[in-house]
Design goal:
Blueprint (H helix, E strand, L loop, with lengths): L14 E4 L3 E8 L4 E8 L5 E4 L5 H10 L6 E4 L10 H8 L2 E5 L12 E3 L4 E4 L2 E7 L8 E6 L5 E6 L2 E2 L2 E2 L9 H13 L7 E4 L5 E2 H4 L3 H7 L2
Parallel strand pairs: 4-5, 5-6, 6-7, 11-14
Antiparallel strand pairs: 1-2, 2-3, 3-4, 8-9, 9-10, 10-11, 12-13, 14-15
């Protein structure tokens, strides 16, 4: 098996990361090269998908590469490119659905659970912590998995990438809100070895990004 480095492309195979209690699978879909992540509890086979972005057939195959069940789907934010396969996957697998409370009404499928900062989601024996990051959209959420035998794994949607925070140049977005939440709710909480899995592109760590926070704040994006 290829060692995990987070480098995926649409049409390519999943990258697989084997943790003690959880397996993480990453694929890219669509012309926007959206990342989708499948989390599988080793003990129970319960599975959670982060962002049913597009290409329901590919994401369905990803589910079957794991345990075959899809028990939970979390939408990190309301933007169209992150939700195009949501209805098809809900119809096919009937998972419990989640999204940030302030984005919920904009989704093509209204979530079963409206998430707020500090909530938790249980996937078999694994616990995910919900981090509300305001600015890219009002209800954007990240998910943190504090591996009891390793470091934290953070799924950030479009709120944090290698090299900066997400886009805040459109109407209704706020750089000030996003940089403040990313600073106080992510960098002030999690260690440098926290691995970041963004909504597009390659992965990073908080340690790689932390030295640039003041630079991001000064440039305003």
């Amino acid at each position: 098996m290829t060692a995990y480095d987070g480098d995926v492309s649409p049409g390519g195979p999943a990258q697989v990361r084997e943790l003690a209690h959880l397996v993480i699978r990453k694929v890219a879909v669509s012309e926007m090269s959206n990342n989708a992540y499948l989390l599988t509890c080793r003990a129970t086979g319960e599975q959670l998908l982060v962002d049913a972005a597009d290409d329901a057939a590919r994401l369905g195959a990803l589910v079957r590469e794991g345990s075959g069940s899809l028990d939970h789907v979390v939408t990190t934010h309301q933007h169209w490119d992150h939700v195009r396969a949501l209805r098809d996957l809900v119809d096919a697998f009937h998972p419990r659905t989640y999204a940030g409370a302030d984005d919920a009404d904009a989704l093509p499928v209204r979530p079963d659970v409206r998430l707020r900062h500090g909530d938790t989601i249980t996937v078999g024996d694994a616990r995910l912590d919900v981090v509300h990051l305001r600015g890219h959209t009002p209800g954007s959420v990240a998910l943190a998995y504090p591996d009891p035998e390793g470091h934290t794994h953070l799924f950030t949607g479009d709120s944090l990438f290698p090299g900066g925070v997400g886009n805040t140049k459109n109407e209704g977005q706020s750089f000030d809100s996003l940089i403040e939440d990313v600073t106080t709710r992510v960098f002030a909480v999690y260690d440098d070895d926290t691995w970041v899995y963004p909504g597009h592109g390659g992965d990073t760590t908080l340690g790689a990004e932390r030295p640039h926070l003041d630079e991001w704040r000064e440039r305003g994006w």
